[in-house]
Amino acid sequence: MFLGFSCLAMGWIWGLAFAPEDAIQGNSYRIIFLHVPASIMAQLIYFFMSICALMHLVWRVKLAAYLIKSAAPVGVLITFIALFSGSIWGIPTWGTWWQWDARITSTLILFIMYLGIITLHSSFSNAEKADRLMSILVVVGVVNIPIIKKSVDWWSTLHQPASISISDGASIDPSMLYPLTISIFGMALTMIALGILVSKLYILTREKNKKWVQSHV
Amino acid sequence: MINFFSLEAFKLRHKLRAWLGPLLIMILVLIAFPLSIDISQYDLNKFYFSVIVVSLLMISFLATESIFSEDYEDGSLEQIHLEEKDFYKITLAKILVHVLFIGIPMALIGSIFSFANGVSLAEAPKIFVILSISTLILFNVFAFGSALSINKGSMLGVVASLPLALPAIVLLGRGVRTVQYGQGFFEVSVLMAGVALIVTALMPIIISATLKTHLE
Amino acid sequence: MQLVTADNLGYSINEKRLFHNLTFSLNSGSGLHIKGGNGSGKSTLLRIILGLTSPSKGGVEYCKPNLQVSYLGHKNAIKHYLTPMQNLELMFRSSALQNAMKWMNTLGLNKVQDELTANLSFGQQKKLALIRIFASQSDLIVLDEPFVGLDNASRDLLNEFLQKKLASDTSLILTSHIEPNILCSELVLSGETDD
């Protein structure tokens, strides 16, 4: 937790204070240090959830379902941050806070999916049934992730192509890249810490009748 | 399989409201839209398609809303499970029958209305083709949604399955554009047909697993 | 010959235990009457035996491959928007349909065969649903409260039918609060509490 925060803080301070101004976008680009990590995490969390879902469906690992259930609210939060920071960024650079562009739209869809997963789970009284149904939905929904990833290339629109891609190297200057990478790491660590906190709470709630919980609390 | 198909057709034929209702609503929406907005025919021609597409999306949802709930509530699903151990065939039959009874007529209505709004007579069949293919995709997706939310009301189904339906809508929009600009229609329609086939093959497996979970 | 065996069955819902350590077996041609108060898990046990619900512990085994099971639960599995006649057409392939129609006459449903099932009385609907049991060939009959809503005549008819089936080597598992007139072994679910 502490490590995550410090990484995030370092990335942000570096990025916000020391990195050079963007030639075209000026200072407003600095929100990138929030926006990009958030967007990446939004997808990574879903990816993590889908792996858990698969584990739950195939091997019936109970813990996997708990993890999905706890990761989903974190996902909602981070996707909201990604969308929100994106629209703040959009005002100075594109002149509009919202655009029906493929990538933004699909991130919005991701946001709805997170909400859908949470609603689905909470609407069943039989928790094990809810776990299974939720896992099915998560696995099916994973189709959306490649669509989000590729949508910018398929429908080349207003949104700029991804800032970092593994094959071509970075399309931005190293002086911005380093703080960005650190922010991403920081964000990831923060999210993991948050996820662990939430899931700890959730596991305790779900297993509240078990002996080990009663002796633990 | 053929047996299931004919039984489902038999059932749906006797549920007038379930198949005629969505079609009537579709017609109503398509008529009401130009009436409710005061614009020139020229402007209308440009975006009337999006009205057709959106109403297709909504009506597809409406048509598949109770596709499984009836059999779930009256216990028929349990009986089928005892006989078949699996819902693949019944799901496939249900979806195909619904597409046949509601989807294809919907596509027909859509293409007729698009003809009335600036598409030439030669192009209308193309619209019919891509609309029919997309109803197949949409019915699969929404059938999944309604299977997920089988006894919990339709809102949940929308939230759960809408994200899956939107890519299909994007594809449909692409297809419509190729008709409007008169090029690339073949490629896009083949792509859509391919997607539809894959979805139709896979979705019943997923839905079958979902229904089994519900029965437990 | 053993037909169904259950080994160390247990079922819990939301970590609350319904029953556990149930072990029993059923021979072909014999009956089992599952007893217990409301909420003791009778219906759930039936569904586990049928393979609809998976148990939390243990398992049920069928000792005969391709076991033919007919089942009638709380839900009648009949369509209210169809007539009784059409319902039978949905239930049975053409070969068994003749037999089913005979049962419809026996149960006195032929008077209402062209009305919508929604307009039938509760008992009549139950009878219609029971035709699924009467007219199908099976190795195992599973019934959940079959006598509810039936008049005396049809109750006797059902008893008689089940006796005949037992004599012809078909097994029977049922739950009922109305004592059936059939030779059955008994299994009592006590609705135990968690320990």
H and E string of chain C = EEEHEEHHHEHEE
The secondary structure category of chain C is alpha/beta
Through-space gap between termini of chain C: 36 Å
Radius of gyration of chain B: 18 Å
Oligomer class? heterotrimer
The pLDDT mean of chain C sits at: 84
Estimate what percentage of residues of chain B fall within beta strands: under 5%
Give the strand tally of chain C.
Answer: 8
Strand order of the largest sheet of chain C: 5-6-7-3-8
- Helix % of chain B is over 70%
In total, how many domains does the architecture of chain B comprise?
A: 1
Query: Radius of gyration of chain C, Cα only, in angstroms?
Result: 17 Å
Q: Are there runs of chain C of 5+ residues with pLDDT below 50, and where? A: none
Uncertain residue ranges of chain B: none
**What share of the residues of chain C does DSSP label as strand, in percent?**
25-35%
Give the SSE string of chain B.
HHHHHHHHH
Summing up helix and strand content along with how strands pair, one would put the structural category of chain B as mainly alpha
User: Helix count of chain C?
Assistant: 5
Largest interface: A-B, 25 and 19 residues
Sheet bearing the most strands of chain B, described? none
